Structures are given as structure tokens and as C-alpha cells.
Amino acid sequence: MPDNRKKRVRYTEHMLLISVVLAVVYLLLDSFLAIFHTSKSSLFEQVMGFNIDEISMRIIALCLFAIFGSHAQYTINERKKAAEKMENDALMRERFQRLLSPDLAEMVVSGELNVEKGGEDHFATVLFVDIRGFTTLSENAPASDVLQMLNEYFECIVDVVFRHEGTVDKFIGDEMMVIWGAPMAHENDPVRAVRAALDIQETLAVFNEKRILKNLTPISVGIGINTGNLMAGYIGSTRTMSYSVIGDTVNTASRICAAARAGQIIISEQTYRVLHGEFTTREMSDMVVKGKFNPVHVHEVIGYHDA
């Protein structure tokens, strides 16, 4: 902060004191001038006044100075608090707009949606989407082109996620992790996740048409979805923290995504049970997942169920 700004801050924080000092200066000057008008009165009379009316006027003047200073101090403090709140809200809005849809981010900023700093249990649905053949793709193109491709790709699918009110948890290289059910829960979070997965595949088809016209390699992705209990909250150090989720539900979703082939959407049995027949699915062979003793029952999503 520049020195002149620091001085202004010091002055504005002591308006009441300044007004009292001005009142004292006023009283002394008024008394000093009274000395030249009369020499018969005592010093006390010259300072406080010759009669009750003069004494009252000077007390009133002192009170007016004090009231002015108090009001000025209160107004300045309120403006300062309002400015600090606006700055904090802007920082919070910027942080959450990277994770949540604009509507949900605004709800967090306004206080309508509470995001706990500690861990909270949630029943949620986790989606992982990962580019297939990314290693080969990145080996055959300059790093700058790969980075541009990733940014354009994520721009498209993040828009899809926000349309279905999901929370972007993190980007891991060419992989993206999305949550439904934390911090904002809906009755149909698993359905929203599967709708978003189908929408991602459709959006990617349009994205690839543009790439093919530019003689660029099309992109294909695999998607894995799982539903269950997890822990959600801020994770990190005292210097930097981010909102995320952890638990077996997350790990299983990641393993399911790793098994999905290009263009394939695989969901767990837990997700399948709560879809209410909205989608056409195909039961797959049980999947052996690293870190789990029992195989995982999975299904492939083919599309929307015909009415």
C-alpha cells in the first residue's frame, strides 16, 4: 500500500478523535479572542463563558463536533466493511465459478448454499471422463497444439457438466472428475450424471467434425460413473485448499472409467439401480477392480430408453 494511502487510512480511522481535537481548538481560539474583548473577567470565565447562555452554546458546539465525528467514523467504517465484503465475494465467486455452474456459484456467494470447510458425508455420484489414446496423440503433436486441444476440449465438456448442474472437481492431465450430490444435491443426481455422459459424447461428435475439417485427429473418450457415500470438503494445506471428495466411491468410479473403451459409458450397479429405466443399458461381465476384494457389477449405457 502506498504511503499516502496509508496516511488516509490512519486519518479516516480516527475521525472521532480528530473531531474532539478540532472542538478543543475551537474552544481555545474562541477563549483566546475573548481575552481581547474584556480584561475584567477571570480566566475560567473567559474559557467557559460569562453566563449560562454562553456556556450552553460552547457545550452544544463541543457536542456537535463529537456527533459529526462519530457519524463520519460510522459511515467510513460501514463503507470499509462493504468494500471488504465485495472484494471477498468477488474472490469467492471467481473460485467457485471454476467448479460450479454460474447459478450454483452465485448461491454459494449469497449464502443460500453452504460449503463446509470441514468434511461432510454425502451420497453422491462421481463421473470420470478420460481421453483414449492420449499418449499417442501427444507424442505426434507439438506440446502447444496438445495444450490448445485440451483447452478447447475441456471448454466444451465443462459447459455440458454445468448444464446438468454438476461440480467439476479436478482436471488430471486429460482426465476430468465431476460430482453430482456435493455440495448441491438433487433427487436425481445419478440420472443427471448419465444424461451428462450421453451429452458429452454427442458434444464430442460435433467437436470432432470441426477437427476433421481442419485435418486434425478426432478425440474419443471413455466414461465411468459410480454412486455411493463419500466425504466432501476442503482438502489441502493452510496455504492452498480446494473443494474435493474422497472415498471408495471415487476410487471405484476411476477404475470403471479406466476400463471403458473409446465411446463407452460404463456405470456401476449402484448407479444402475436408481436410474428408473430412463436409459437403455447392457449388463456387462463383472469387473475385477484393483483394491477391491469382490468384483464390481457394471452396465454399459447405450442411450435413452425409447418411449
CATH architecture of the largest domain: 2-Layer Sandwich
CATH superfamily of the largest domain: Nucleotide cyclase, GGDEF domain
> What is the count of β-strands?
8
**Helical stretch tally:** 10
Largest sheet: 8 strands, mixed
Distance between the termini: 65 Å
Shape: elongated
Say what the CATH topology of the largest domain is. Answer: Alpha-Beta Plaits
Name of the top-level CATH class of the largest domain: Alpha Beta
Order of helices and strands: HHHHHEHHEEHEEHEHEE
Overall average pLDDT: 79
Oligomer: single chain
Q: Rg, please?
A: 33 Å
Number of domains: 2
Strand content: 15-25%
By secondary-structure content and strand pairing, the structural class works out as alpha+beta
Describe what this molecule looks like in 3D.
With 307 residues, the chain is α+β, with helices and mostly antiparallel strands. The protein has two domains: 3-97; 102-304, Nucleotide cyclase, GGDEF domain (Alpha-Beta Plaits), CATH 3.30.70. The chain is 53% helix and 20% strand. The chain has helices at 3-12, 15-37, 43-48, 52-97, 102-110, 134-139, 143-163, 189-213, 248-259, 269-272; strands at 120-131, 167-172, 175-180, 221-236, 241-246, 265-268, 279-283, 298-304. Strands 1, 2, 3, 4, 5, 6, 7 and 8 form an eight-stranded mixed beta sheet that branches. Strand 2 and strand 3 form a beta hairpin. Helix 2 (15-37) packs antiparallel against helix 4 (52-97), helix 4 (52-97) packs antiparallel against helix 5 and helix 7 runs antiparallel to helix 8 (189-213). The longest helix has 46 residues, at 52-97. Residues 5-11 have low confidence and may be disordered.
